[in-house]
Amino acid sequence: MSNRLVVGVDCSTQSTKVLVVDVDDGTVVASGKAEHVVTGSGGARETDPGVWWQALEESLAATGRRGEIAAISVAGQQHGLVTLGDDGPLRPAMLWNDTRSAPDALDLIDALGGPDAWADRIGVVPVASFTATKWAWLRRNEPATAAATRAIRLPHDFLTERLSGRGVTDRGDASGSAWWSTATEDYVAEVLGLESLRLERSMLPDVLGPAEPAGEVSPAAAAALGLPSGIPVGPGTGDNMGAAMGLGLEPGVPVISLGTSGTVYAVSDTRVVDSTGTVAGFADGTGRFLPLAATLNCTLAVDRVAAWLGLDRNDAADMTNVVMMPFLDGERTPNLPDAAGTVVGLRHTTTPQEILLAAYEGAAVSLLAALAVIDRHSSGLDPAAPLVLIGGGAKGAVWQRVAQRFSGRPISVPATEELVAVGAAAQAAALLTGEAPEAVARRWKTRAGLLLEPAEVDSYVLERIDRVRDLAEPLNLWDGWTAS
Fold it and tell me: Is 73 within a domain?
């Protein structure tokens, strides 16, 4: 066993997870986890940034190996707004899933000249999750706090700065702010100068390259966390970029993350522009790009249907004539924020298991449709590459079977877990070895696991689902589902 150990950190919405990883072979020798407190109602979702630092301390202590660490890197939830004054955070951080800034997103789109202008100049079209919209909301609703703000950070930036003493970020996480451009690889003065933002560039972190260290663990951070002082700190990145890095993805390999919500992405050699906003044209953590699309209804929606029916989540039929659009929280892809769930094709003979399968199929079709959009807007998906399933639902037999039937691709389910933290660990290891982070992940064989052969595409079922979706479009567009 090598004596060189690194730490990868995943500061997610609900918890901080750390992995202590052997540099030579990628073995996870220890891990730790500490929960976060998320507060808010009516669209608000906030966490005190101090909670993240405390959770990092607790999770590192739980490993029992923190004194042996040779490098550390942090990947974190994207888009959150951390406002710093002269003495630290001025208020709780607004998280990515805080939706109060939806009106501000619309105003920003208009202010720069519409969706095409945003996609061309920045790479993303503002939605409520992006950092710029949250800063606009704060200036509008809490002007005194905005006036007292001396620096703005993303969640991973906040922890990296506490570790190293430097206000830095990386291009992957910066690309989700909506004020950094994948075209120019820089902050955009025209966006920072918009009336609703009025933001000085000096308030933002410097953007580091994939192999550029953020600095070293400071004596103060070392004393607080029990880490060796002076070890290198990686630039870090956003959570989706961290997972892609942890998989060691080559360009064109499609990934579906089956979580509470669903995410699809692929590394692209070329910059991606989608003025519809379906695909966010992010940068990645390796110097390339990470076009990404998300759906709101994934494992949570399927599990809710299973609970209503009194079934285990895996107790689904093999086939069904029922079609369900499980848009229980509205939907983002397709963009139907006011939609509700729809079930079509019920008969006296329909079993609960058939209805549950329809929920899986409806969620899977949305994810694969989003992947098709990425294929059109990126440098293209590799037609021979397996579809990589990750996230909480990836090991579910029904999810795997539906992905086979609808994608026509081989299905790869990596055995590696906590891929965001693994990606951060690979980045930390790269600081020691001089390799690229994605090369480290490939050397660690992080994609090893279950490989399922491709199945013939079930075009009959897909056509039926598409037909029902077309017929139900007026219902999905009707805002009466959300009326009080």
Answer: yes
